[in-house]
């Protein structure tokens, strides 16, 4: 009985028992609550077992009075006392089962907290590459289902399993005392019933997996559509999106039909088997009573006990059903939990313990993704004097196996230098920023920061050196103030306002009714593109990092706003090492050196004056600009 579902069948399915044990191990901090729930259910079961004895006793007393063996008055007193005993047992069971219910609620909520926090913790540790391949809504849907099903199962188990066990054991022992053939029959029932149920399990799980996949994909799309509803509306794609959604959900109907008919067919077989065994059991009890082996009271006792034994067998299929869901859910859950974390992120998170650690130790230290600590830099690294602030050394890089996006990239940025990256759209400019931030590792070669390979720097040290304004402003729901202060939540109001002023955002912020407390909607949707970009610039200004990276930071601004923001940026870049991906030639003209990219290769490196005459990309761009060919300029992400 320790193994509810024997490990049968398809090797593609991990042993269910080990999945379940893993959940228990994962939440072992809940052991006191599990114990409380189990103790309550054992007490409830014990109280329940008293009732058939009392009723049996009452039956004998009644029979004695009817047959005239006992005086009516004595019998009445006795049966009233027995009824009071039943009342006490049932009241006790009512109270204790409710106390158990309370523990169960608390336990399952704590469990949900642990599982959710650890999942989120894990996600935050995963490398950028993992996220590139996932759809947000799908991750969320999978998480919700997994956790609900695991939690429901554990609650049900601790609520009913212990009492089922104790009831069954007691019934077996008592029936063995009265008539061993009854015990024998009961002993046959359990294993056969479990075996029949487990036969159902493999197919059931496969179909459940298919359904979940469709639902998760639909939910992922759902979240994307809601997030980008403007695009959906503008292309009048509502009907198409709805049809796709409903097609996926409808496909689960057919799967459910197959799954359910399989389950119910099997249920007919196992229940019929149960009915036959119980036919034999009742026949034995009745015949033996007629033959005088049992008194009426004993017969009533045995009938009730057998009925009690039937309940655990029948509820076994519910336990197994919910176990199957939990196993399917825990597989999804643990598949994510087993994904190797980005060890450098893990090291940073581990060095900064938080409240989350309370709800389960950090995912980064889970046995499944142990990384040798020595491989991960955590100690502060001092800059090497005189070394370039940023250097790319023969870097080749591919997002996906096969196609390299960057080839032999080799350049450096000295302290205080301003470098511009110019190249065709899709040429790899933003990719260089991603590598610099350590979001991806080069395939060959290395990225060096302050003289050290960037992989030797703890990530927080690396990233705190770099202030970046991304191509898409990437804001959060919440207030303007929270967004500007995202990197430094402790910043004073004066600092936030100063950063906004330098980003030329102050004026428009103050026009909002709530000013800096204005709520800006998901991803800042209530702001214009230019406003979002200025908030993002203010966010980078407030971070005040020694290296500034601007990836088309002002592309969404109109010329007038851009000139103003540029003023703030120029001031910010003063004395700072900067890497600029500009979309306006006028900005590029001011830098110290330009690096031009062609098809992921470096084409030229030189000062604007040198490159203006070299006939390379920059010279061509200048020509295009003077001839007013904005269409071909746009290929280089450049406007006039
Ligand atoms: N996360 C990603 N996964 C796979 N390919 C990517 C990813 N991001 C960008 N790419 C590809 O890498 C190339 C360079 O992109 P990017 O560096 O963004 O160009 P840009 O110079 O316009 O900033 C493009 O061909 C793009 O399709
Ligand atoms: Mg780009």
Question: Would you mind describing this structure in some detail?
Answer:
62% of the residues lie in helices and 9% in strands. The chain is α/β, with parallel strands linked by helices and 640 residues long. Among the domains are: 19-350, Up-down Bundle (ABC transporter transmembrane region fold), CATH 1.20.1560.10; 466-544, 3-Layer(aba) Sandwich (Rossmann fold), CATH 3.40.50.300. A 6-stranded mixed beta sheet has the order 6-7-8-3-9-10, sandwiched between helices. It has a 4-stranded antiparallel beta sheet with strand order 2-1-4-5, covered by helices on one side. Helix 5 packs antiparallel against helix 6, helix 5 (136-178) runs antiparallel to helix 9 (296-338) and helix 14 packs across helix 16. It is elongated. It binds adenosine-5'-diphosphate and magnesium ion.
CATH superfamily of the domain at 19-350: ABC transporter type 1, transmembrane domain
Major sheet: size, sense and barrel closure? 6 strands, mixed
Order of strands side by side in the largest beta sheet?
A: 6-7-8-3-9-10
**Overall shape:** elongated
Could you say which small molecules are bound to this protein?
adenosine-5'-diphosphate, magnesium ion
How is the CATH topology of the domain at 19-350 named? Answer: ABC transporter transmembrane region fold
Distance between the termini: 77 Å
Arithmetic mean of pLDDT? 86
Strand content: 5-15%
The parts where pLDDT drops under 50 for at least 5 residues are 1-13, 357-373
What structural category arises from helix and sheet content? alpha/beta
